Amino acid sequence: MAYKYETVIGLEVHAELSTNSKLFCNCEVKFGSEANTQTCPICLGMPGVLPVMNQRAVEFSIRAALGLNCKIASYSKFDRKNYFYPDLPKGYQISQYDLPLAYDGHVDYELDGETKRVRINRIHLEEDAGKLVHADVTGNPNQSYVDFNRSCVPLLEIVSEPDLRSPAEAIAYWRAVKEILEYVEISDCNMEEGSFRCDANISLRPVGSKELGTRTELKNKNSFQHVMTALEYEEKRQARILDQGGKVIQETVLFDINTGRTASMRSKEEAHDYRYFPEPDLVPFEVDAAEVERIRAALPELPAERRKRFVEEYGIPTYDAEFLTATRQMADFFDETARLSSDPKGSSNWIMGDLSGLLNNAGIEIQDAKVTPAHLSELIELIKNQTISGKIAKSVLPDVFETGKTPKQIVEEKGLSQISDASAIESIVDQVIEENPGPAQDYRDGKQKAIGFLVGQVMKATRGKANPQMVNQLLQQKLTG
């Protein structure tokens, strides 16, 4: 397949906006509420109700579009997308068709050390549908419930061009979009809660052909791994059909996570199937150019720019920069720590190592931790000025993480200050040499590694508080003098 066919993939990424209220009514947007408690006549589609547009949702959409390098339409409108499904109370969805809010953008992403670009066709704003609750919750395979809490939640749809050439590229692009949306703070992109998901379209064509093949669509997935596996399966399935002289059917497929296979759900709809027409209850709207520039000026430094700056300004490896910019909060934390400590690499090492371990074990994000950049920079400074050793610092950080106290407070309370008084260490070194004649003689006989055991004994006797450099120097002087 690799040499015979070329894979062509396009993604439609959906992100729920983190507004306080819904797109066309004042109902609260709150995940996890009791079913059908965040509803009103407007989002339930009752006869005679009139929607009113949420201005904040438009602002968030513009912020996202600018982060994705899109042009903002000066004139836009909403349309009715007509179809029947139990979770769509009105029998149509208020969406955008021919005049979307944004268009003609692109996203750059990294894969295997190479920078690639995906063009964005359009970004439009629409209302989300409700949520069907099936047998895994109801316990009855013949019965489903509908929760309309999600109905009318503002949803941004980002439609890419078919520029992706492998499942791995699709996932790398999808991750890059998620990262940007989180940085511009328009969505929490919580995949487990369903606020960030995608539809994936995939087709195959003979290598060298410019004509697109017949595509299938994987619908409404919220897992990187599931989409990856489903696309890989579709590649193989479509290749088998083409190899046997058959034709791929344009259809929507479902992915079974238990079997790792896709199955036909329904024939794939085209735009005309939805009978789009302008939404008569909402007037078209114009976006002021000055407002767009105001939003653009307020955008944060985006992840790709920040990675580049971290490497150039702080001199840290690319791997470190990629890790530290995974979230905006992590990048902010590192930026501040590096500035306060004047030790970017040391800051990076502590954040990527010990601090990340503590965060993972606690199951929290860095912005929710009691450790602050000021705490970590103070810890680094205590090591630099030899108040404590690196080993002692590793025992101090968990206490800071647990209590929120400063490293200096913990060092003072527990008496952990490093012993750098040569006379105090010398007496312990003499004692260790006397109590361990074998290793001492081994070192005199040229076995350099033997000094490591003796250093360890001194550190043990001082509960790790002796200055390791001074211990090494004194042992060498005593054993070779």
Q: Mind explaining what this structure looks like?
A:
- By secondary structure, this protein is α+β, with helices and mostly antiparallel strands.
- The protein has three domains: 5-291, no CATH class; 301-414, no CATH class; 422-480, Arc Repressor Mutant, subunit A.
- It is built from 16 helices and 16 strands.
- It has helices at residues 55-67, 135-138, 167-183, 224-243, 289-297, 303-314, 318-324, 328-341, 344-362, 373-384, 390-403, 407-414, 422-435, 437-444, 450-461, 468-480; strands at residues 5-16, 71-72, 75-76, 79-82, 92-95, 102-111, 114-127, 131-133, 145-147, 154-160, 196-206, 216-221, 251-256, 261-267, 277-278, 285-286.
- The strands form four sheets. Strands 2-6-7-10-1-11-12-13-14 form a nine-stranded mixed β-sheet. The protein has a three-stranded antiparallel β-sheet with strand order 5-4-15, with no helix packed on it.
- β13 (251-256) and β14 (261-267) form a beta hairpin.
- The chain starts with a strand and ends with a helix.
- The mean pLDDT is 91.
- Its main location: mitochondrion.
